[in-house]
Write a structure and sequence with these properties.
Layout: H1 3-16, H2 18-53, E1 58-62, H3 65-70, H4 81-93, E2 97-103, H5 105-116, H6 120-124, E3 133-138, H7 144-151, E4 157-162, H8 163-206, H9 208-216, H10 221-256, H11 261-264, H12 273-303
Antiparallel strand pairs: 1-3, 1-4, 2-3
């Protein structure tokens, strides 16, 4: 097969169906940009989980005098020195515990003033109203229930709180957004495939005389189909290149520059360029193979070769 003939046929097909080719490029670009974005979102969520789950603590809040008057869990009064020592001893013996930090009421008051000093409530608080607590770092954040079972309801303990529960709600929201993006991507992908099939069929119909002559002179089925398949592949590859450009530009302007989220949101560990660059070959391969396969199956029925 002469490469020059195939290339010339590709150019003819793209020019004849310029509007539909443009629609294919746009739909492929949008669907694959969403596909790449959903993959990067999954990586971002995994990165954030690894970063934050390693830092979460289980907090054991102890009863103070004000709690003894208002909280049923502290009906037996404020925590005693013996109860605090026993809690510390029990925590040190537990194999799931990595380390334990005790925060006094004065330290809790100081931290509260540092974080919420401008709040009207901060002016009315006193150190004795703040709760002492043990901040427990677990070797495995999933083992929170072990701590809760051992200390929740114990004398002197007001409550046991797991910071991981707060993070789980955030990650569920992010995962929900990610699945929504995948749903939109799937719809765009269906639209792109329909446009590819229609574009190939229109192109084949407009060149039915040429294909008929080629069939009469004994040209093979693959020889006849190749220009149409490659035409769809080229349009898809252009769309894939545009999708890759979208992802690179989005990463550059949203995280590094422009919005510069990496500087404004220091508490979030954003994915790096390596995560983006590793997705680009997959997007390009998909943009090449998806239209080619769609065109191949469409032509088998349409041309009957």
């Amino acid at each position: 097969m002469r490469a020059q003939f195939v290339l010339s046929e590709i150019g003819v097909g793209l020019r004849r169906n310029l509007t539909m080719t443009f629609a294919v490029v746009v739909s492929v670009a949008l669907s694959l940009a969403l596909f790449g974005g959903s993959l990067l979102m999954s990586d971002q969520v995994s990165t954030m989980k690894g970063y934050w789950y390693d830092k979460v603590n289980v907090s054991i809040f102890l009863c103070n005098k004000s709690d003894a008057e208002s909280d049923p869990n502290c009906a037996k009064g404020a925590v005693t020195t013996e109860q605090k020592e026993q809690i510390q001893t029990d925590l040190d013996k537990m194999p799931v515990v990595d380390n334990v930090t005790h925060e006094s009421s004065d330290e809790a008051y100081k931290h509260y003033k540092e974080q919420f000093g401008d709040s009207p409530l901060a002016a009315s608080l006193t150190p004795d109203q703040m709760q002492e607590s043990f901040r427990v770092k677990l070797k495995d954040p999933e083992k929170y229930q072990v701590i809760a079972t051992a200390f929740d309801g114990r004398d002197g303990v007001q409550s046991v709180q797991d910071q991981k529960g707060i993070l789980d709600n955030l990650f569920e929201l992010l995962n929900g957004m990610n699945w929504a993006a995948r749903a939109v991507m799937a719809m765009m992908l269906v639209v792109a495939l329909m446009l590819i099939v229609n574009t190939v069929r229109v192109s084949a119909f407009s060149r039915r005389r040429e294909t008929g002559i080629m069939r009469l002179v004994g040209a093979s089925g693959f020889y006849i189909q190749a220009p149409f398949i490659m035409e769809a592949a080229v349009a898809g590859l252009i769309g894939g290149g545009v999708a890759c450009g979208f992802l690179v530009v989005a990463r550059y302007f949203i995280i590094d520059h422009g919005l510069a989220l990496s500087e404004k949101l220091n508490l979030i560990n954003f994915i790096g360029w390596d995560a983006v660059l590793t997705k680009l070959p997959l997007i390009l391969a998909t943009s090449l193979l998806m239209p080619a396969l769609a065109a191949f199956f469409a032509l088998r029925k349409y041309l009957k070769v």
